[in-house]
Design goal:
The protein has 142 residues and is α+β, with helices and mostly antiparallel strands. Helices cover 27% and strands 29% of the residues.
Length: 142
């Protein structure tokens, strides 16, 4: 059984666009890179990440979470995923990243301002995400 943990999806959006995000409504998304941090704890583990990948590839159109509206947009590309297996650190990782353009994004079950971060470049955002995961879970010894 996959134990799951905390994950961050790294997504790029080449041009600024407006995206409807379910109950959060329409929001402007600047061009650049986005990091969505979530948790995949419980019996399914990181199967949630596989679900996000299927949606990003267009193999599914079911929108259950805020991030589904972003990764399901035709101009968005899911680039990679950073994981911390066994860690329940979703909020701790999200708090170490810049806030994105949508208040409350992915944070409807906690007190965080947002679980979506934005940066102009994927490289800078990847570095920030990797540092945030390491800061809250310790170095990866694999």
């Amino acid at each position: 059984m996959d134990e799951g943990g905390t994950y961050t999806l790294l997504i790029t959006l080449p041009e600024a666009t407006r995206i409807g995000v379910g109950a959060l409504g329409d929001h402007a998304f600047p061009a650049g890179a986005y990091a969505y941090t979530g948790s995949a704890l419980g019996s399914g583990g990181f199967a949630r990440v596989d679900r996000h990948r299927r949606l990003a590839r267009g193999e599914s159109d079911a929108r259950h979470w805020h991030v589904d509206y972003l990764i399901g947009h035709p101009d968005a590309t899911l680039r990679e995923v950073v994981t911390s297996p066994g860690a329940d650190a979703e909020c701790a990782v999200a708090e170490r990243l810049n806030e994105g353009p949508v208040p409350g994004f992915g944070a409807s079950d906690c007190d965080c301002p947002s679980h979506l971060a934005h940066e102009t470049t994927l490289e800078r955002l990847r570095e920030m995400v990797e540092n945030a995961h390491e800061a809250v879970t310790g170095p990866d010894d694999s």
